Task: structure prediction
Amino acid sequence: ESLLLDRARGCLLGAALGDALGATVEFMSRSEIKARYGVHKKIIGGGWLYLKPGYVTDDTQMSLCVARSLVRSSGFNAVDMADAFVEWMRTGPVDIGSTVAQGLRRYIAKGRVAAKESQWHGGNGALMRVAPVAIAALNCPDSLEEWAVGQAHITHNHPLSDTVCIAVSRMIQSALKGRPLLELLEIAHELVRIHPEFTFRPYNGKAGGFVGETFATAFSSFYNTDNFEDCLVECVNQGGDADTTGTVAGMIAGAWYGARGLPKKWLNKLEKNTKAELFELAKGLLEIG
Amino acid sequence: MKKIEAIIKPFKLDDVKDALHEVGVQGITVLEVKGFGRQKGHTEVYRGAEYTVDFQPKVKIEAAVEDGMVEKVISAIENAANTGKIGDGKIFVLPLEEAVRIRTGERGDEAL
Amino acid sequence: MKKIEAIIKPFKLDDVKDALHEVGVQGITVLEVKGFGRQKGHTEVYRGAEYTVDFQPKVKIEAAVEDGMVEKVISAIENAANTGKIGDGKIFVLPLEEAVRIRTGERGDEAL
Amino acid sequence: MKKIEAIIKPFKLDDVKDALHEVGVQGITVLEVKGFGRQKGHTEVYRGAEYTVDFQPKVKIEAAVEDGMVEKVISAIENAANTGKIGDGKIFVLPLEEAVRIRTGERGDEAL
Ligand SMILES: Nc1ncnc2c1ncn2[C@@H]1O[C@H](COP(=O)(O)OP(=O)(O)O)[C@@H](O)[C@H]1O
Ligand SMILES: Nc1ncnc2c1ncn2[C@@H]1O[C@H](COP(=O)(O)OP(=O)(O)O)[C@@H](O)[C@H]1O
Ligand SMILES: Nc1ncnc2c1ncn2[C@@H]1O[C@H](COP(=O)(O)OP(=O)(O)O)[C@@H](O)[C@H]1O
Ligand SMILES: [Mg+2]
Ligand SMILES: [Mg+2]
Result:
């Protein structure tokens, strides 16, 4: 039981560490990062958002909205979650993706909790916040797909985004339950078989906001390393949408290695209110169902 | 899609921007302009002589929005920019046939 | 309603404003812009070297008017702004779907 | 006829002007504007304290073009203005009901 809680905390905190670490180098290229930082491996803030060290971006902030809503509603409630996103948007967050902003405008104007399917919704804005769903649906696995896709559709409605939200949720659940690594890997291989856009082996070096690239960058770093720190350093140093690739790598690797596997030097830097709330929410999410 | 243009008093810019944020409109383009209307310009003294500057500095806000957002955006601007005094300004709505996000090539509502 | 936009030579602003008043247009919005067209820019000397500034300063006038006023307004601007020399400028007419007077909430023709 | 409006990064003006010349667009009108969007303003230090200027200087290009030119013009601007980084800007297309060349009185496509 305490191992499960440790992994759930690892998942949420790991994602936040990926966000904070990657934000410094978001939108930089691999060679630009090399020229400026050599290897970027410290939580120092900065980046295009002028972040304070240890602070997170929309990736973690939206995940917090998802998690709070799941705990409050004892499961997935689209209206409650959409309201939470709108309330967050109105605080003037440090960043908000264009597809997310558009989806929230639709909800404000029309009250519809689901976007219409769109070829332009293949971005990673729904994937980046799916980790709490994986934890919440542990005791009601039949709800996993409905919740993972339901939360995504508030802003993103695209078959690849839907598919990877489900697949990564399953990977996280496999890790949380302490299943063998091969089971987690098989979920990834199955994803690639059906949708080659997610090919992570060989990794083609593309680390942009398209879900195919985001997943490939995150998962290839998990696949090619054997500890949390190396996984995230490998991931964010690819640059591109580094805070989000870092978030996705962090949610998978964090669930796998557990909170005990997260570097203390990074955890000490993480903004303390965010850290404390994620720590608590892990427990609340496990109690659902 | 529609293109909304609002002419407002300059000191109202921040209030209008905040009101637009509340309804989810993040992207706008702002221009400094001169307004001529019922509101009288102010008098200035230049080399001892008084003369009337007959225009009013105004700010013009341009925002491309989805059809479903137009009324929300009009209300947001109206409420934020209104003082009840002459010269508060205007809101205009024009049809927008296409929009493109230069960074990604996205078109239509996705470009906004 | 229509939105009329006119690009004119800056020294013509007062003539055009007067001509618009004559036909009953009170409210206009004015912007300083740079024009690029057939009219050549002027040469400037900077640190001893001559170079061509390739744009022309222009003034842009925007006036929302009732449908019935459009031809009158076009003529007024044309006659006032014309010099017969290259660079006199353009008049554009766009459809205006809604207008709002921020001070009172009036809409349509009443807002102009 | 259509009115094309493009909001671009200021250092891209010459590239976009060249690209427009390549496809045969000679006349354009340019405005300096302030952009608010996802791109962060820069930080300035004032009396020892750091603060963020929340707008980005942008340039707005306006070009009236014939219907058949629209897609060519959109591509020309897109390719010239794109850097792939946030803040590259937008292209908008509005219907243009009439155009007049002030110097000659020519109307429609002839006026462009
Ligand atoms: N018909 C119009 N077309 C374009 N802009 C206008 C028009 N009428 C007014 N404006 C703009 O609106 C501003 C306010 O107009 P004004 O007549 O002074 O006050 P009010 O709208 O309160 O009656 C003007 O300074 C001008 O910038
Ligand atoms: N197609 C166009 N779209 C927008 N503005 C234009 C266009 N063509 C010209 N202009 C504007 O009109 C001004 C005059 O144009 P120009 O070609 O120099 O002279 P003329 O109209 O007398 O032939 C330009 O400086 C520019 O501001
Ligand atoms: N809805 C809009 N209406 C009018 N202008 C906009 C709109 N959205 C953005 N802009 C303009 O485009 C510029 C770039 O937008 P931004 O959101 O920073 O980046 P991007 O278009 O790359 O996503 C802004 O600075 C602003 O001038
Ligand atoms: Mg982010
Ligand atoms: Mg990101």
Q: What stands out?
A: The mean pLDDT of chain D is 93. Chain D touches chain B through 33 residues (CB under 8 Å). Helices of chain D lie at 13-22, 70-81.
